[in-house]
Amino acid sequence: MEIMKLSEMKRGETGVVETLHGHGNIQHRLVDMGVVKGTHITVVKKAPLGDPVEVKVKGCALSLRLNEASMIGVSCERGRQ
């Protein structure tokens, strides 16, 4: 497994949240939505230019801006969908 930014994951890939690099309100918003260390997260789809990114966390669909997705470090097995 490798650790990468959530923004680098491809549609259909699943990983586990390892780090959260946001500050202040952004970090609190992500935590409030359930994006915490150890949580499984799946990329459902990406907009044509990559922004926003739709992910699934704890059974809920979330839409994240690309800059928010780049703050989340995820361990992901490449090629596993």
Q: So how many helices? A: 2
Mean pLDDT: 89
What would you say the CATH architecture is? Roll
Number of domains: 1
| CATH class category label | Mainly Beta
Helix content: 10-25%
Spatial separation of the terminal alpha carbons:
14 Å
CATH superfamily: Ferrous iron transport protein A (FeoA)
Structural class: alpha+beta
Shape, principal axes of CA atoms: globular
Largest sheet: 6 strands, antiparallel
Order of helices and strands: EEHEEEHE
Strand content: 35-45%
**What order do the strands of the largest sheet run in, or round the barrel if closed?**
1-6-2-3-4-5
Q: Which regions have little confidence, pLDDT < 50, spanning 5+ residues?
A: none
- C-alpha Rg (nearest Å): 11 Å
CATH topology: SH3 type barrels
Counting DSSP E segments of at least 2 residues, the number of strands comes to 6
SSE topology:
Elements: E1 2-5, E2 14-20, H1 24-32, E3 40-46, E4 53-57, E5 60-64, H2 66-69, E6 72-76
Structural summary, described in words:
Keywords: Iron. This is Ferrous iron transport protein A. GO terms for molecular function: transition metal ion binding. Residues 4-76 form the Ferrous iron transporter FeoA-like domain. The chain is α+β, with helices and mostly antiparallel strands. The chain has a single domain (2-76), classed as Ferrous iron transport protein A (FeoA) (SH3 type barrels), CATH 2.30.30. The protein contains two helices and six strands. The chain has helices spanning 24-32, 66-69, and strands at residues 2-5, 14-20, 40-46, 53-57, 60-64, 72-76. A six-stranded antiparallel beta sheet has the order 1-6-2-3-4-5. A hairpin with a 2-residue loop joins strand 4 (53-57) and strand 5 (60-64). The longest helix is centred in the middle third of the chain and has 9 residues, at 24-32. It is globular and about 30 Å long. The mean pLDDT is 89.
